[in-house]
Design brief:
The strands form six sheets. The chain has a five-stranded parallel β-sheet with strand order 7-2-1-11-18, sandwiched between helices. The protein is of the alpha/beta class and 527 residues long. A hairpin with a 2-residue loop joins strand 4 and strand 5. It has two domains: 333 residues, FAD/NAD(P)-binding domain; 98 residues, Flavocytochrome C3, Chain A, domain 1, CATH 3.90.700.10. It has 16 helices and 21 strands. Helix 1 packs parallel to helix 12, helix 14 runs parallel beside helix 16 and helix 15 runs antiparallel to helix 16. The structure holds succinic acid (SIN). The site of succinic acid has 10 residues, from helix 7.
């Protein structure tokens, strides 16, 4: 593999693949580094679908309004306008590239999810929408000869010289040795950090390394306190928290407590289709009230054949655990699902570090505000992945690749020797995040969490453990700073929204936490 390319994309989810395709179409050489196999990303596991304005009774203004309401006052209006208008074009383009969404008689089928005023969610193979996006994008990327996807390549850090990001350090999967690769620009598309919490719907790769790397490179991180907890993850002892899509409630699923009582109408008039943060907190309240570790998602009023066809993956997964979704109420509890915050970018994916771009869940574009509207994330990945790729190419017309020093000589992989310690550190952080920085937070729990994370951070750690604890610190510090409740951030000691906090939290390395009133900004590119 050459140690020089035009652009490096880190991550192979929807944002990374879309950015790569756009850059390759402009004639650029693109190297995609991904730490697992190319198809392994948060995108692959997305079930519900893609929210997009394509239905006859829908329009961009309605989608924009729903997104802004869900975002609880912290969305950037321009970013949302960009999402809902360009999103439709991006989906049509994807269909031209071969993506197949569920349809009936040639017409797309739209489903309902919480806080959408219209049925506007398209889906593929019932509940495997993300997998279809990945399949079609990988197939399209495969037709571009200038895209080189390197699987199992763990990126250790960004190279920043004279204030500009000029490349990355990574572990070469074949040589099993550290390498450097230089480029005109780096596009970070590593997804979110659901794994920071003990219970998560996210796959093992969602550890937030990209956020940590950007932070260490000097990038501004925005709104890290806003974590979305999905209300309905399958809750069985010794089983991963498998996502039971919100679309199940959209199709008529009912939440019941251990006595079989429907409880959501007592908490919110929108009942099961209230925004996710409300449903998640209501479930926690109901579990506490009734002394249980889960509530029940009841699909039994729906036709069995319909359920099997509409949710084939969920049907099969539940069957594996001896549950029939058509006849058994399913034990569910909330789990971490999505990070609204991340690398602060402008509307073209530019971070505050020249040469470093970002797209998808790893970013904070301002699209989601304090709470992401269901099924807006795949759309964000497509729209802002395309934009970031375009900006990276346009900004770098006069940029010369800095060839840097020679590759470092192989020195083994520090990660392996520290594997046991790394696992223990991670386990502890996940538990503390869940218990003290989770769905309900307060000053005392956050301070205790930060104290513990600071102690862990003082120790000698492997790269991945260092990334992990740093992210935990960023989330906990921002959560302590935000003395209010808004969207995905709930403080039991400050249960109301407060006007003085209608701002974004900004964190930068070696600087105190600060706030910014608006997130749209123009980072200067260095040419
Ligand atoms: C779901 O299917 O419930 C998840 C979709 C999303 O997170 O937008």
């Amino acid at each position: 593999m050459s140690s020089e390319t035009d652009f490096i994309v880190i991550g192979s989810g929807v944002a990374g693949l879309r950015a790569s395709i756009g850059m390759a179409e402009k004639g650029a050489r693109v190297t995609v580094l991904t730490k697992d196999k190319a198809s392994e990303s948060n995108t692959e596991y997305a079930q519900g679908g893609v929210a997009v304005v394509l239905a006859e009774d829908d329009n961009p203004e309605l989608h924009e309004d729903d997104t802004l309401i869900a975002g609880a006052g912290l969305c950037d209006v321009e970013a949302v306008e960009t999402l809902v208008t360009e999103g439709t074009r991006c989906i049509k383009e994807l269909i031209e590239w071969g993506a197949e969404f569920d349809s009936d008689g040639g017409k797309l089928i739209f489903t309902q999810e919480a806080a959408h005023s219209r049925r506007r969610i398209i889906h593929a193979n019932g509940d495997s929408t993300g997998a279809e996006l990945v399949r079609s994008l990988i197939a399209k990327a495969g037709t571009e000869r200038s895209i080189n996807i390197v699987p199992f390549a763990y990126t250790e850090g960004l190279i920043v010289e004279n204030g500009r990001c000029t490349g990355v350090k990574f572990l070469d999967p074949i040589l099993r040795a550290p390498r450097e690769i230089r480029a005109k620009g780096v596009i970070m598309c590593t997804g979110g950090a659901g794994q920071l919490f003990l219970h998560t719907t996210n796959p093992a790769v969602a550890t937030g390394d990209g956020m940590a790397m950007a932070y260490f490179a000097g990038a501004d991180m925005a709104d890290m306190e806003f974590i979305q907890f999905h209300p309905t993850a399958l809750s069985l002892k010794n089983a991963p928290r498998f996502l039971l899509s919100e679309a199940m409630r959209g199709e008529g699923g009912i939440l019941r407590n251990k006595f079989g009582e429907r409880f959501m109408p007592r908490y919110d008039e929108r009942a099961e289709l209230a925004p996710r943060d409300i449903v998640a907190r209501s479930i926690v309240a109901e579990m506490r009230r009734t002394g249980t570790r889960h509530v029940l998602l009841d699909m039994t009023a729906l036709d069995g054949a319909f359920l099997k066809h509409r949710f084939p993956k969920i049907y099969e997964t539940c069957k594996f655990y001896d549950l029939d979704i058509a006849s058994d109420p399913l034990p569910v509890s909330p789990a971490s699902h999505y990070c609204m915050g991340g690398i602060r970018t402008d509307l073209h994916g530019r971070s505050t570090v020249p040469g470093l771009y970002a797209a998808g869940e790893v970013t904070c574009t301002g699209v989601h505000g304090a709470n992401r509207l269901a099924s807006n994330s795949l759309l964000e990945g497509l729209v802002f992945g395309a934009r970031a790729g375009e900006a990276a190419v346009d900004d770098s017309r006069f940029v010369k690749i800095d060839s840097g020093g020679a590759d470092e000589s192989p020195r083994g992989i520090a990660e392996t020797s520290n594997a046991e310690i790394a696992t223990a550190v991670r386990k502890r952080i996940k538990r503390v995040m869940w218990e003290r920085v989770g769905i309900l937070r307060d000053r005392d729990s956050l301070r205790r969490a930060i104290r513990e994370f600071d102690q862990i951070a003082d120790a000698k750690l492997s790269t991945s453990s260092r990334n992990f604890v740093t992210l935990a610190q960023l989330v906990a510090r921002a959560a302590l700073w935000r003395e209010e409740s808004r969207g995905g951030h709930y403080r039991t000691d400050f249960p109301e929204q407060r006007d003085e906090f209608k701002v974004h939290s900004i964190q930068r390395m070696n600087a105190d936490i600060s706030s910014a009133a608006t997130i749209s900004f123009q980072a200067k590119s260095v040419v």
